[in-house]
Amino acid sequence: MRRNYFVESLPAQSLFGRVTVWLITTLLRLVFHYVCAGKGSVLKYIYKMSNLEDNDSEDIDISGDEADEVDGYTSSDETEGESEYEDSGEDTNNETEPEPEPDFEMQGPKMESPDQHFLLHRTVACRYLLKATLWTLLNFFFDESLINLIVEETNRFAIQYIIKNGENIRPHSRVRQWKETNTNEIRTLIGLLILQGLCPKPEYKMYFSRRESIETPFFSKIISEKSFHLLLKFLHFVDNSTINANTKNRKLVKVLPLLNHLREKFMTSYVPERDIAIDESLIGWKGRLGWKQYIPSKRKRFGIKLFALYETSGYMYNFIIYTGADTIYEAHHSQEPVTSRIVLSLVDSLLDKGYRLFLDNYYTSVDLVHKLVKRRTDCVGTIQANRKGIPKDLQVKLSKGQSVARYNRKIMIQKWHDKKDVLMITTLHDKTMEKVLTKKGEIEKPTCVLEYNKKMGGVDLADNYLH
């Protein structure tokens, strides 16, 4: 397995420096894979990056009948202020009495067509940049505001470090030769970090070596080894003097400006297509880190865990970095169970727009699906048999190939036995079975299982981009 040498070879005493550079290079690799591999498909709804003129945009007309039929949910049979899933107004915290379990029936309503009208956004969308270059897109994600912030905080930290350790700095230390950096040097540093990801070496000094067997003369022509290491040493995004014992999320506080900036760019530069999925990803990291996770099913096994919202093309629209008890979620979902809090925080900006969300059994629950339906968001996913609200009559033992389903208004729960029991919850499908040709012959599988397997593939694509 190839190691991320150019990150792991950073000075051992600078843990923050190692994690910071790792975050920058990993996210940049993800951004540039979107640009290079997805042009014409992944980025086809990307926003104009500058000088957007009103006469170049098109408003979406939702007047008349289409205003009442939004995202496949019609209001023709509903009175004003009412819906099929009317909110009871009860609090969602754990101290209130739980809602009564929904009653599931053997027959369900007529399912709506999956090709119902879908509104991407009720705002002005920008056209795809057919002539966008890599440099233009890099400047979009790392714009002047972010570069200026890095320059300011890097210079500030260098001065703070020199004042604090002035007497202890050795006479011939590189630190004594520090000069204030500028935007050109920071952009150069980011570019070299990207290039080092394409040309990995065990140690930084090997990029500046003059030995013919390992020489890469491009680096020495761009920047001196001394300047390169000084920039890495003092690279900063926040003012250390503002951090104290009362600072929230101290684990990520030094990189939060960078993460928030990139998250905002991911969300504002692209309008996802209708089918989206939420799952966890693992960015490989074997260094010292308090919130490092171990997930044996992932390729890298050790690293930092992300809860992320993906389009089926593999585009990461939103993400949450897991740091334990102080993980940052949307404040207005704080009373929800943890798994529901993750889903609702990630999908918050896409609710009420008719999206179709695919989840695995770690996140799904009957209560969460009801909440999503109220917000005009369909849901398809596997679900654990011991979740609250699952009909007890679905615990019946089935033979291979058999299935049974129960309905509660728009929601269907279907149990199907393949090699083992598979329990699905969906607001898009009925209990229809489809014939599939396999190595062992032709078998029947539920339609919801086939579509779930297809749409969750975007998560695997994103994992490939990250590694």
UniProtKB/TrEMBL annotation:
- Region (Disordered) residue spans: 57-110
Checking Pfam families in the record gives:
DDE_Tnp_1_7 (PF13843)
InterPro entries in the cross-refs: PGBD
Q: Which residues cross the membrane?
A: none
Q: Where is the composition biased (Acidic residues)?
A: 57-104
Residue ranges of domain PiggyBac transposable element-derived protein in the record: 137-465
Coiled-coil segments on the chain, per record: none
| PANTHER family in the cross-refs | PIGGYBAC TRANSPOSABLE ELEMENT-DERIVED PROTEIN 4
Q: What is the name of this protein?
A: PiggyBac transposable element-derived protein domain-containing protein
**Native source species:** Acanthoscelides obtectus (Bean weevil)
